[in-house]
Design a protein that fits this description.
The chain is of the alpha/beta class. It has a single domain, classed as Mannitol-specific EII, Chain A. Helices cover 43% and strands 18% of the residues. It has six helices and five strands. Strands 1, 2, 3, 4 and 5 form a five-stranded mixed beta sheet that branches. Helix 2 packs antiparallel against helix 3. The mean pLDDT is 92.
Length: 149
């Protein structure tokens, strides 16, 4: 399953309302809950927080990929949040994070999880593409950019 298959307007939020890292995690998980992609908000949030406590998933160039594995899902789930103003997410380069790709996977299915991480890493190499996402005005525009419309 590719990233394109996971992205829809119901799992994209622009702009995020959060102002700090704990709120970002809660808001991203809530996006999945509101979209009907997960049932057990608390279990998913706990898995994401536990993973984040081990090592920040704030990468470089304004991108974070919080992720976790939990039996609360049977297939890979994605939420994409955009914070044009940037949020401190303990990133590797110390810069504010603007693009948040939340991935939730089943513990027994690592293939799709790894593939999605690789696709996000590939997207992240294009600063122009990342800027286009950050400057998008709607979830529909974000989906169009990712799907190459």
């Amino acid at each position: 399953m590719s990233l394109i298959d996971l992205v829809s307007e119901k799992v994209v939020k622009i702009p995020l309302q959060s102002k700090d890292k704990p709120d970002v995690l809660r808001e991203l998980v809530q996006i999945l809950k509101d979209a009907g992609e997960i049932g057990d908000y608390d279990t998913v949030l706990r898995a994401v927080q536990d993973r984040e406590d081990k090592l920040s998933t704030g990468l470089q160039a304004g991108i974070a990929v919080p992720h976790a594995k939990t039996s609360a899902v049977s297939s890979l789930k994605l939420a994409l949040g955009i914070a044009p103003q940037g949020i401190d997410f303990d990133s590797m380069d110390g810069l504010p994070t603007k693009l948040f790709f939340l991935l939730i996977a089943s513990p027994d299915r690592s293939g799709p999880h790894v593939e999605a991480l690789a696709e996000i890493a590939k997207l992240a190499r294009s600063q122009a593409f990342c800027n286009a996402l950050v400057n998008a005005r709607s979830a529909g525009e974000v989906v169009g950019l990712i799907q190459g419309d």
